[in-house]
Amino acid sequence: MRKSKSFRTKLMTHILLLVSATLIIGTVLVVSLVKNELFEQNERYTLSAFVKTDTELENLNEQVRADSISLSAALAGTGIFRADISSDLSFTKALINVSSLFDEYTDYDMLGLIGEDLAIASSPNRSFSAQKGADAVLSSALYRSILYGDKEYGTAYLYEFLEDSAQNLPASSAYRQSKIIYFKRHFQSGGRSYCLLIGLRESDVHQMYLHLEQDVNTIYIVNGEGRILSSSNPGLFQTTLSYSSEISQEQSTYKKDLDGREYQIVQYPLNIYDWTIINQYPTSEYMRDVNRMSFLIVLIFSFCLIAVAVSITIIIRRLSSPLDELSSRMKSLPSTGLAPAQYPPKATNIDEFDILNASFSQMANDIQHLMTLQKEEEAKKNQLRLQALMAQINPHFICNALNTVKVMAEISGAQNAATMIQHICQYITPAFRTNKNRWTYAEEYAFLSDYIYILEIRFNARLEIRSDFDHSLDGDMLPRFLIQPLIENSVYHGMSQARPLEIDVSVRKEDGWVRIAVSDNGTGFPPEELEKTKQMLSSPEEEASVELQAGIGLRNIKQRLNHYFPGRHTFDLYSVPDRITTITIQIPDCPNNAASARNSENSR
Question: What does the DSSP 8-state code read for residue 524?
Answer without folding.
Answer: -
